TrEMBL record:
Belongs to the peptidase S1C family. Residues 323-366 form the PDZ domain. This is Trypsin-like peptidase domain-containing protein. The keyword Cell inner membrane does not apply. The chain crosses the membrane at residues 24-49. It comes from Citricoccus muralis. It comes from the Bacteria. Keywords: Hydrolase, Membrane, Protease, Transmembrane, Transmembrane helix. The keyword Kinase does not apply. The lineage of its organism: Bacteria, Bacillati, Actinomycetota, Actinomycetes, Micrococcales.
Length: 409
């Protein structure tokens, strides 16, 4: 199988710019076989739906009781607790037309109802070396700290957010991310005091009515799709149509809402329009009965925001600009094949050349461009990494590279 893979160290052969239905992650059991995306990267290329993998069991037992569920805010710390207290029911929330959704007929995918008022919610547009992508996000502080899915901004060179209620655009910087939990923290730049998102940190109950809100298919405005909570503490395998890698996402809220690409990073709200989660994945299907959506509980997202703003990296949280080698990669049957080496880059200094094949990074075997991207993404500028590669003559080479600053998120 061959396919060009966008990565933090470059892109494969260019394609004409396009704005596909994207900004999404699908849950998989059987892996699809179309090359063209990186792990949770739902960026420049179309994605195909997979199947739900039910890996954890306890959601329903954990919430059998109708009362006594602890408030998630009680477990938060530092900035996360402060945000939870400041944003808890801070306003009336997102205006969802519940009656119109309830009156819907037919078995096809719900296209959603237009949302007229969504304070603190924005649409995301990203650029990736000539490709474009879309998603949704939420403002957490008036000075522009915001949250979306990491896969919405992964490998982007530019991030622009457009406030849903005003249509005003701002540039945004990725402050940090947790790829394991698919959360990115943004700083919206040069904005006046922004409206914030209103949250409900109480744990939802199975059967609760909710709605996902987002920029479906990059349509340029918000719609809402209504469903109900069917499981909590859900674990899924998430990947893209390339299926080179999958990620195990845990602790998710499952809903019957017919979420579609473009809702990624957007709010899942309760019956009062208060945000309870961050939409991140969907199961496949062509009818409403087949589709489920998955959201990260808002408390989990706030903890990641807290960690990023603390300035201290963890095993899963990276802050600031990642390290890079400075190469363009194409996935081939033999593995990650170097197509181009940037002049004066870490790769050139190491001795890598076009036509070389990367075998491992820091002792970790890499067989796809996705695996190579993640092996590099998890390291910082200035880190020393041992790289093993096979050169054009077939000889195996080993060397240590000092990672340079990545040009993409």
């Amino acid at each position: 199988m061959h396919g060009s893979i966008p990565s933090e160290f470059g892109f494969g052969p260019p394609e004409p710019p396009r704005r596909p239905r994207r900004g999404w992650v699908y849950v998989l059991v059987m892996l699809a076989g179309v090359a063209g995306a990186v792990g949770l990267f739902a960026g420049a290329l179309n994605l195909l739906m997979g199947h739900v993998a039910n890996l954890t069991p306890q959601a329903e037992q954990r919430h059998e009781a109708a009362t006594g569920v602890p408030d998630e805010a009680a477990t938060l710390s530092g900035t996360a607790r402060g945000l939870a207290e400041e944003l808890d029911h801070v306003h009336e929330g997102i205006d969802v037309d519940w009656d119109a959704s309830a009156a819907r007929t037919g078995t096809g995918i719900d296209e959603g109802q237009v949302v007229d008022s969504a304070p603190g919610i924005f649409m995301v547009d990203t650029m990736m070396m000539g490709f474009y992508g879309t998603g949704t996000g939420m403002v957490l502080t008036a000075d522009g700290i915001a949250v979306t899915n990491y896969h919405v901004v992964e490998n982007s060179t530019d991030v622009v957010v457009r406030m849903a209620d005003t249509d005003i655009e701002y540039n945004a910087t990725v402050l940090g991310r947790d790829s394991e939990h698919d959360v990115a923290v943004l700083q919206i730049e040069d904005a006046p005091e922004l409206p914030v998102t209103s949250l409900n940190l109480s744990t939802p109950q199975i059967g609760d009515i909710n709605a996902a809100v987002g920029n479906g298919g990059g349509q340029g405005y918000l719609t809402s799709v209504v469903g109900e909570v069917t499981a909590l503490d859900k674990t899924i395998l998430a990947g893209t149509d390339a299926a080179e890698t999958t990620s195990r996402l845990t602790g998710l809220i499952e809903t019957t809402a017919d979420v579609v690409p473009g809702y990624s990073g957007g709010p899942l709200v309760d019956r009062d329009g208060q945000v309870i989660g961050v939409s991140t994945a969907a199961s496949p299907g062509e009818t409403t009965e087949e589709v489920n959506g998955y959201a990260i509980p808002i408390a989990v997202a706030l903890e990641i925001v807290n960690q990023v703003l603390s300035g201290e990296e963890t095993e899963t949280v990276s802050i600031g600009v990642d390290g890079a080698l400075g190469i363009t990669i194409l996935t081939t049957d033999d593995g990650p094949d170097i197509q181009e080496v940037t002049p004066d880059s870490a790769a050139e200094e190491l001795g890598l050349r076009a036509g070389d094949l990367i075998i491992s990074v820091e002792g970790e075997t890499v067989t796809t461009s996705s695996e190579l991207a993640r092996a590099i993404n998890d390291r910082n500028v200035g880190d020393l990494v041992e790289v093993v590669w096979r050169d054009a003559s077939g000889a195996t080479q080993t060397g240590t590279a000092t990672l340079q600053e990545a040009v993409v998120n």
